[in-house]
Write a structure and sequence with these properties.
With 200 residues, the protein is an alpha+beta fold. It is built from four helices and seven strands. It has a single domain, classed as 2-Layer Sandwich (Beta-Lactamase).
Length: 200
């Protein structure tokens, strides 16, 4: 699965941009992944319905992700709650090949990942499913992810219940990006001589 290189402006949702900017400010201090306990965006409680928290066991590859919370919109879109379950088991065999590589890319690259997919609701209306993944760390390893999940329909209203499972049509990727450019702003002379910062 290919991912394009992008800067933070690729994120369309203002709310998701705010979440990303908070992560970037923490990351920019030392160019290290922030801890999840220090991630406190303003008015984050307003975003809880669209957020899903995961713990990551990266002892082997592919890593296992366990759902630690269940945003109400995610539960509606997938038809049932997933708290306490492995993400791959929750998704099921049809969606795993489409969804899990996005999470694996975020963990492997240790950078935010942003995707947009199209999916038809039960009435055939096209819904854009915008996903922002943010990685967090303890002692250098990716230990947590937060996913912000937004659903938007240009036609206005849509049916979110069973959106991801309610028909035979699988999500179609419109955009897959790793946010690896313009991650921070440094004043001249802040980078010690001989240090090279690369994101590949």
């Amino acid at each position: 699965m290919d991912f394009d290189s992008a800067n933070p402006s690729v994120v369309k949702s203002i709310k998701q941009r705010d979440l990303l900017n908070t992560w970037l400010r923490l990351f920019a201090r030392d160019l290290l992944l922030p801890r999840i306990d220090e991630y406190q965006p303003a008015r984050i409680e307003e975003e809880f319905p669209d957020l899903v928290y995961y713990t990551v066991d990266a002892a082997s590859w592919p890593p296992r992700l366990t759902i630690q919370s269940d945003g109400t919109r995610m539960a509606s879109a997938y038809g049932h709650t997933g708290k306490g379950r492995f993400l791959d088991e929750y998704l099921g065999p049809r969606l795993v090949p489409i969804v899990m590589p996005v999470y694996h890319e975020c963990i492997a690259r240790r950078l935010p990942v942003y995707t947009i997919s199209n999916i038809d609701d039960s009435y055939g209306r096209i819904v854009a499913y915008e996903r922002l993944l943010l990685p967090f760390s303890v002692a250098g390893n990716v230990t947590h992810l937060i996913a912000s999940l937004k659903t938007i329909c240009e036609d206005g209203g849509f049916e979110i219940r069973n959106l991801m499972r309610g028909n035979d049509t699988l999500p179609t990727a419109r955009l897959r990006t790793v946010i690896d450019r313009d991650l921070f702003h440094r004043t001249p002379g802040r980078i010690p001589a001989g240090d090279v910062i690369e994101f590949s």
